[in-house]
Amino acid sequence: MATSIVFSTLLAFCFCYVSLAFDPQPLQDFCVADVGGAVRVNGVVCKDPKKVTAEDFFFSGLQEPGNTSNPSGSWVTPVFAAQLPGLNTLGISMARIDYAPWGINPPHTHPRATEILTVLEGSLHVGFVTSAPENRLFTKVLQKGDVFVFPAGLIHFQRNVGYTNAVAIAALNSQNPGVISVAANVFGSNPPISSDALAKAFQVDRNIVETIQSKF
């Protein structure tokens, strides 16, 4: 009887292990993204290795400051697989973020990645909010050389709290982390979310919702 129970348990364990197993690593040296290819997969299909060159693993541009002349006062220069095809299947990406004085990278999430941020210049007030029901805010002011991590999927933000420009580099554990900007996605969706629904959700007058929607 005991032997039968042990055997059944082992079978169940093996079944679960096999069912949930996956290979998180590439199965070849590289899979350079064929960004112009017609085939669509979960990711980007591989370019013919014989046509791959050193340029596929190269990106130039992070030395240039982004244009922060916009309502948020910030600019993100991404280096994802779309910009650097050699990142395809490697599970990493990065971005440069520029902030005008008092500029903000508005509250947003990355549904497919954790982000680690390093301040290169200036002072940034950063933070993230945990999921419900706690909705706990973790926040800190960072100086040049400081590092802060934003767990995957959680709403986070950065704001320049200095009188000079600020610069940061973000590293993410996905070739395509995705970005959901809270305000832009909620108030600037296409087609728009019903103003009545948003008024109820945010417990404000419908006219206020429509005014905010007009900004997006």
UniProtKB/TrEMBL annotation:
Record keywords: Apoplast, Disulfide bond, Manganese, Metal-binding, Secreted, Signal
Single Gene Ontology MF annotation: manganese ion binding
A Pfam family matched in the record: Cupin_1
PROSITE patterns membership: GERMIN
Subcellular location: Secreted, Extracellular space, Apoplast
Domain Cupin type-1: 60-210
SMART domains with a match to the protein in the record: Cupin_1
Disulfide cysteine pairs (residue numbers): 31-46
Cell membrane keyword on record: no
GO cellular component: apoplast
Family affiliation: Belongs to the germin family.
Superkingdom in the source lineage: Eukaryota
Binding site for oxalate: 105, 110, 115
Name of the protein described by the UniProt record: Germin-like protein
InterPro entries in UniProt: Cupin_1, Germin, Germin_Mn-BS, RmlC-like_jellyroll, RmlC_Cupin_sf
Main location, first listed in the record: secreted
Coiled-coil region(s): none
Signal sequence range: 1-21
Binding site for Mn(2+): 108, 110, 115, 156
